[in-house]
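User: For this week's homework, look closely at the record that follows, marking any run of repeated tokens, and judge whether sequence predicts the tokens.
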Amino acid sequence: MCGIFGYIGHRKASSLLVKGLLRLEYRGYDSSGIVVKNGKLESYKDVGKISEMASSLPSLKGSMGIAHTRWATHGGVTKENAHPHLSNDGKVAIVHNGILQNSNSLRKRLAELGVELSSETDSEVFCHFISMDLEQGKSPLESLQNVLSIARGTWGLCVLFLEHDFVLCARNGSPLIIGRGKDEMFISSDPHAIREHTDQLVALEDGQIAKVESNHFQVMKLDGKKVKSRLLHLEEEWGESELGDYPHFMLKEIHEQSQSLQHCISGRLRSSEGTSVLGGLQVQPQELAQLPHVRLIGCGTALHAAQIGQILIEQWARIPAVSHVASEFNANDPVINPKALHLAISQSGETADTLSAVKEIQRKGADVYGIINVVGSSIARQCGKGVYIHSGPEQSVASTKAFTNMVGALALFSLQLGRSRHLSKTKGKSIVKEMRKLPDKIRTYLENPGTIDEAVKLVTEAKSVLFLGRGISSPVASEGALKLMEIAYIPCLAYPAGRDEAWADCTH
């Protein structure tokens, strides 16, 4: 869950880079660093918190730079392994998200050529190969193309050059976004970090390269052929990420659930017809009425939301539905019915396993619709149609309001599907009425959550925790177990409580 932020413009780059990294802090990291161009490439990096790195950061002038937060994959948590990485001649700097599968062979080749490596990372090889090609007279673009042609793996890559006033970016399996300001450009692995500066962005696709200058950018294919890119507009709510009076983002986002769910359902419910309207699906009622089944795909929290959606679809629409964990979907070589409807669920829209499943389903001739939070994300673009859940930025690692809105969006879909089939208007009206009450019910509960403190005390003293649920509460129990493991590292197990034998099994 590494993060990238870059800036090219007229303002002081170092302060903007640090601020961008702080926006990416929620993704998790163990080290961070920045590099700024100012007559030379000046780099500073360290292990630990971004705030601590920033507090000891020397005064770095310059209006162009790139920055990174790293979570160790290749090599330990050391200053040497932190990004950015610089070539030995100091003329090329890189930051990289992703994993190179052939890094060992590339490092061996560099060593045989006499290149001294200063880290244990896979990422470092990029700057050295690019530097060697530059020495041989190749252009920056040619040098990047050459190293990408021999690399195997995934990358969101930014390259800063001492002798050129632009940054080259490349994407393959790891998100990278360019934001356009006024005579300045921003680069990030997450749109959340860009929104406070601009709402106009372009998301790179896999296999693309971008040349980014202060007042212009050009997206290309790997062979250098120019690509016309469509500007996306990020909603204003993505700029709202301040803590306010809350001690941390998770508590803040828990209390935002009422408002975010209201955003999700607003304008989508139709009381008079007892139905909902999700225009982004682009599916006619007669098409919904003829569906043989529905498949829902997701990972982690998104999978638990899918499991709830599966139950609602079968209850309200009386149509077979099944949920799949995306990481196993392709490995199981599923039979795809092109007439069926497939839903891909992801908060970030960048979940690699879910994106892979989407591509496999499309390869076999079926449509996939996204249930996504992040506008312009990879899955949203790959699907081309679907539903945005409108939960806004979610900085806490443990998803809260996004889970609520995923379930809300799936409930809206289940209602629309049900009304196109056998669900009566009377029943539909009743569901609409109850759904409209949900934001207020959430708000009322959060204002007086009861004896939570007593429950917390019991949990903190427990060696393990068992979550039980029946029916629609079974996937909710799974989500509760996941949440507690994520934030407290307490061993947890979710178990269906539908039979007495379940209790008996758990006591052995």
Summary: The chain has three domains: 3-234, 249-448, 450-508.
